[in-house]
Amino acid sequence: MSNYLLGFILVGLVGTLSLDILIRKKHNIVFGIRLYKPVNNTHKWIENTLLIVFIFSVLIAALSLSYIAIYVLLFCFLTILMSIRTVMEYKKGIEEEKEYIISFVWAIGYSVIFIGSAFFMF
Questions:
Q1: Structural domain tally of the chain?
Q2: For the purposes of burial, counting CB atoms within 10 Å of the CB of 68, is it exposed (0-12), middle (13-18) or buried (19 or more)?
């Protein structure tokens, strides 16, 4: 993997984490380390299906494509996952917790990393 790609990914993750911490402080969102709990059964079903598709696509990519393609797939998966979480938390979740704001921040951060890593791949 090129050093530029690794640096880009690292800067993207550190930037997103910094923004996450600032938004949590501003909106008084509790930071706790816990397992993620889906909003409802539909949400759980969508995330499990997405995970299975991701695992199969990584296996196929590992056999036929370069390792950089696996990073692109990873950040594509994380972008879609966090986007789904944002929508489900906003529509079906408890809006007073404002956890959907954090999911949105991570979705944007992962999408920037996904587009950047796709750029480095080509």
A1: 1
A2: middle
